[in-house]
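Dear H.,

Thanks for agreeing to be a second pair of eyes. The structure we're designing against is below in token form, covering all 217 positions.
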């Protein structure tokens, strides 16, 4: 069973998420929170695989909660609930090591899929937000970030670059394995190696770096 905590200051949003997730036999909402501080408290007091976290909340917001969770080193994976108007928040969330971004106008099946993907140790960018995130956060011309990204990518071997390109396109481990004719265990090995070589906390950061290096265009 995948245990989920929902943090949002709008009761109707929390109720809607709970209703959607209750339709999945392998997902259970174990707690709700109305702000970042209570979200952190719930994560610390309960065993949960995934935290669905709104960015904009009164008191401690979602970004502050992400930073606090990173500081205390919890293992719960975080999916940020976002809108198209928050690029600066997304950049900070990426630095905090979140596992995914989901637009608030998500379809029910997308929410369930995102929770399952992140609980399995992968990262999730909804198809409708992937290009927007990459364009807003990564690939900012010939600046220091792009130069650093290209330098790190140049140190990868050919197979590692192939895996990174497919990762940046939003493919899951299973999809990458099928595309490159290798086992999922081998893909996971490459993922672990990539994150280390690229100095990235998770797959989302690696995908952004690939975009900054020009691999995903």
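And this is the sequence the design step returned. I haven't edited it by hand at all.
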């Amino acid at each position: 069973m995948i245990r989920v905590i929902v943090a949002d200051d709008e009761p109707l949003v929390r109720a809607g998420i709970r209703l959607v997730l209750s339709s999945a036999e392998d997902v259970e909402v174990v707690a709700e929170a109305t702000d970042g501080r209570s979200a952190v408290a719930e994560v610390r007091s309960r065993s949960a695989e995934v935290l669905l976290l709104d960015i904009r909340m009164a008191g401690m917001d979602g970004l502050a909660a992400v930073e606090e969770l990173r500081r205390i080193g919890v293992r719960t994976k975080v999916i940020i609930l976002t809108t198209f108007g928050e690029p600066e928040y997304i950049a900070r969330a990426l630095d905090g090591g979140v596992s995914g971004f989901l637009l608030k106008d998500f379809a029910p099946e997308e929410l369930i899929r995102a929770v399952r993907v992140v609980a399995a140790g992968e990262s999730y960018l909804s198809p409708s937000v992937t290009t927007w995130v990459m364009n807003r956060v990564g690939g900012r011309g010939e600046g220091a970030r792009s130069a650093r990204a290209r330098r790190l990518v140049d140190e990868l071997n050919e197979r590692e670059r192939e895996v990174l390109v497919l990762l940046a396109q939003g493919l899951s481990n299973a999809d990458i394995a099928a595309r490159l004719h290798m086992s999922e265990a081998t893909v996971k090995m490459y993922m672990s190696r990539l994150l280390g070589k690229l100095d990235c906390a998770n797959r989302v950061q690696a995908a952004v770096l690939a975009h900054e290096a020009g691999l995903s265009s």
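Two observations from my side: The chain has a mean pLDDT of 86. The chain has eleven helices and six strands.

Warmly,
E.
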